Amino acid sequence: MHSVGIVALGTSGTTAADVVAVARGNARIELTEEARSALAASREIVDALAAKPDPVYGVSTGFGALASRHIGPDLRAQLQRNIVRSHAAGMGPRVEREVVRALMFLRLKTVCSGHTGVRPEVAQTMADVLNAGITPVVHEYGSLGCSGDLAPLSHCALTLMGEGDAEGPDDELRPAGELLAAHGITPVELREKEGLALLNGTDGMLGMLVMALADLENLYKSADVTAALTLEALLGTDKVLAPELHAIRPHPGQAASAANMLAVLAGSGLTGHHQDDAPRVQDAYSVRCAPQVAGAGRDTMAHARTVAERELAAAVDNPVVLPDGRVESNGNFHGAPVAYVLDFLAIAAADLGSIAERRTDRLLDKNRSHGLPPFLADDAGVDSGLMIAQYTQAALVSEMKRLAVPASADSIPSSAMQEDHVSMGWSAARKLRTAVDNLTRIVAIELYAATRAVELREGLTPAPATRAVIEAVRKAGVEGPGPDRFLAPDLAAADAFVRSGALLAAVEPVTGPLA
Q: Is 391 a catalytic residue?
């Protein structure tokens, strides 16, 4: 594992960039003195309450529907161990490493806020595990998104105790105790409230939201580029992208998307000048309304980013330690704010995929492509061209529509009806990850079709940005027009080209930074 920087954790909220740096970039974590002082101060409050005979939830009581039982001092360490062991009840495939690292980092962020009552040494162990590249085994199923992501966080806490399985920096799966020992990390012995504090947050769904937003920012810019290439390949008009047209409907995302497309098309010899064979007053909606659809998605992202920033500034735990010495129960662990925007993004992503697929289909249909060969084939009939690439794209779009069905509209009671309304935010986040993955492939297929179509417009000069894209994508191993060949490797190379950011890296030296 290679560190790419250091993230300092204090008492205030962290940034989305910090989450991505730790989750994907293996950035090291350091606890500030401010955080250590806050941790010590809140622990003093918990220790004082633990010494009193009065029951305090999470300190000297059972949990959830069992909160009515008072737990004596002799059983409290066992109580905290037991909640971790019993709640580590996930099933199904393992969750991706980056998600687990985001989950652990965000829980540590809340612990360092000084509102959880966790001892400084426990927080330091959490940082040590992340810095060592040790990744707990977390399973796909187990979270209802309320009280937070309980099962996933429990599997992480289990590793801190030296129990269960984890993956080392060499990607080898081993018992967690062995991995801790190999890195000189002493397992934690949990005390009052600490087991509960390590489990009770929206950290998994929030981490996946932050990473989805980072991916979607790249994808929305990429989709503006591919939409522009399709417009160009179809000999469409760029007049609909004029800023004055978008100023009279002042959605900021729409204006940004139109400006991106206009920048890509600057200097094109194909747009709006070659319609003599079939004059068009207007282009089809999938071309003409591209900024409106992509723009609405961008504005949805802006709202989701606001929610993420608020959640990153939050300290989500129950009960929570307040500066005046109170330890109060609350409902801040409910994942509704995060779950809603996760679902909202899945809807927006599905629509972006849908309009991209419609543009691809138009490029392949000789009745609507304004002079392009059927399916962009070399010798139509002998060759099928990109016919089945569109089938693949359509299958991905269809799945994205299913993934757009909101998880947050569902709820299922748990814990003997004590926890009788849940957010399903973890489920919303998991399906959004799949949707983002599919959207990348959909945009890649449009890129593949549009670059081929532009190259088939012989005698016409594409925009400088388009030429830069074609040159870069061909160097990346994505073949241009020609007879039929094994298509899957080309599509995989186009997918990698979009996913890595290489598409934007090819365009922006010509256009300047896209919005």
A: no
